[in-house]
Amino acid sequence: METKIVLKDSEIPKTWYNIMADMPNPPEAVLHPGTGKPIGPDDLAPLFPMALIEQEVSTQRFIPIPDEIRRIYALWRPSPMYRAKRLEEAIKTRSRIYYKYEGVSPAGSHKPNTSIPQAYYNKMAGRKRIATETGAGQWGSALALGASFFGLESKVYMVKVSYHQKPYRRMLMEVFGAKVVPSPSEDTQCGRQILSTDPDSPGSLGIAISEAVEDAATREDTSYSLGSVLNHVCLHQTVVGLECVEQMKIANDYPDVVIGCCGGGSNMAGISFPFLRDKIAGSRNPRVIAVEPASCPTLTKGVYAYDFGDTARLTPLVKMYTLGHDFIPAGIHAGGLRYHGDSPLVSQLCHEGLIEAQAYHQTGVFQSALVFARSEGILPAPESSHAIHSAIVEAKRADEEGKEEAILFNLSGHGFFDLAAYDDYLGGKLVDHEHPENKIREALSHLPKVGA
Ligand SMILES: *Cc1c(COP(=O)(O)O)cnc(C)c1O
Questions:
Q1: Number of H helices, E strands in the chain
Q2: For the segment 275-301, what is each residue's pLDDT rounded down to a tens digit?
Q3: Probe target for ligand 1 pocket from 228, 296, 347, with the most ligand atoms within 8 Å of CB
Q4: Residue 229 falls within a domain, yes or no?
Q5: Is-above-0.70 flag for pTM?
Q6: 154 in ligand 1 pocket by Cβ < 6 Å?
Q7: Calpha distance 171→320 (Å, rounded)
Q8: What is the CB-side half-sphere exposure of residue 239 using CA atoms within 13 A?
């Protein structure tokens, strides 16, 4: 039995898989933040190139990946899938655990799967510059890489606390050529407004999104770019699951459970949507699980409602699971999972019962991360460790039920820039935060009123 299952370069997928072609119900409309009416492609044109807007609303099942993108994907794709034999032995399970490793990309996570196509389509549309936000810096470094490959400028609004706490990610972005500022910044009207009332604002992802959107909306040469949540981002990430479908065939197996950690939903969409296609068609019945932190429990404790994507309420309204656009989660180490909302596609599939959600506290997650690191030899990102933890929980559950299941999870990235978090954990300094019931109730009371 091989432990590392690889594909040939020629097997890099030639198309992305668009789940909107197969969903039981069509996606809910996106609404204009001012009028509350459904928006059309033209409303988004100041922010995104038309090719991405078309992908955002397309119902074509398979969308061709341009050769130029496949050639760049070939720098790290197809990524390996492993049978976690040593992890299975360490936890003494009879189940078979597999993981797809996306940490082999130049930015160390799944995010270049979408930053490369986003930069490509912007270049094709004649845009010169891309503005975006980043929390802990994973998305910013992926976008900076994509922009540099296509000769575009990139401007990254980085949440101020992370800018000061995580200097290495900022440095990586600058190496790849990005201009990085701490957000809130003096560079935008909404940044200046927040600083005038709260000069010491630590920033948040919602604020940084507001700044990047304002930057792109007010400059002809600039697009906005988002590293998760949107339909076209989930689409690009399906290369992960499409490769896994082939790799599971080589392993002569099929997953009973498919798991991804969930911040905005893109890596879990990426690994699971091609398997959900089988589930919707009724040919297979895998369970699909989205795993989130207990301190930012969007799918497990949020409501399914229309909300803004950002704090300053500049973005369109989308129907998603949300904790409220002004919810500010505790400063847990999985920075990539601290978003108040979720992908509308993942949300709808969750609402319709095709995806399950679980939430775990960070100390249990880090405990599982160490078991994984010590048995498999890979240092996992704190975000990805939520998926590892769920895989271990599911394997134990199967053991108790006397079943032998195949469990597949997405190891979305490595944790080399997160060693301080491991240091805190090993030093006994990592704490679990209470379920933020009151903060959620408060933020949910500010949801926009949208006619049902
Ligand atoms: C950004 C990030 C995530 C969370 O984003 P999703 O869109 O939910 O995938 C998860 N893992 C890693 C390593 C990340 O960098």
A1: 18, 15
A2: 999 999 999 999 999 999 999 999 999
A3: 228
A4: no
A5: yes
A6: no
A7: 34
A8: 32
- 315 and 405 together in one domain: yes
Query: Based on the domain organization, do 207 and 288 belong to the same domain?
Result: no
* Residues 327/440, Cβ–Cβ less than 8 Å: yes
**Is there a contact between 134 and 110 (Cβ–Cβ < 8 Å)?**
no
Instruction: Check if the beta carbon of residue 90 is closer than 8 Å to that of residue 375.
Output: yes
Phi, psi (deg, nearest 5) at residue 99: -140, 145
- Residue 108 CA to ligand 1 centre (angstroms): 11
Whether residue 270 has its Cβ less than 6 Å from ligand 1? no
Question: Residue 239: what are its φ and ψ, rounded to 5°?
Answer: -55, -30
> Tell me: the pLDDT tens digits for 21-62?
999 999 999 999 989 999 999 999 999 999 999 999 999 999
Tell me the per-residue pLDDT of 95-111, one tens digit each, with 9 for 90 and over.
999 999 999 999 999 99
Query: Is residue 412 classed exposed, middle or buried when 0-12, 13-18 and 19+ CB atoms within 10 A define those classes?
Result: buried
C-beta 298 within 6 A of ligand 1:
no
Q: Which of 99, 101, 105, 111 to mutate to test the pocket of ligand 1 (most atoms within 8 A of CB)?
A: 111
Q: Which domain holds residue 27?
A: 15-65+111-224
Contact 88, 96 (CB under 8 A): yes
Domain count for the chain: 2
> Is residue 2 one of the residues assigned to a domain?
no
Of the candidates 154, 80, 69, the one whose C-alpha atom is nearest the C-alpha of residue 112 is 69
Residue-wise pLDDT for 159-184, tens only, equals 998 899 889 999 999 999 999 999 99
Question: What is the residue with the minimal CA distance to atom 14 of ligand 1?
Answer: 336
Which element (helix H / strand E) includes 211?
A: helix 205-217
Residue nearest to atom 5 of ligand 1 (CA): 263
Mark whether 149 and 284 lie in a shared domain: no
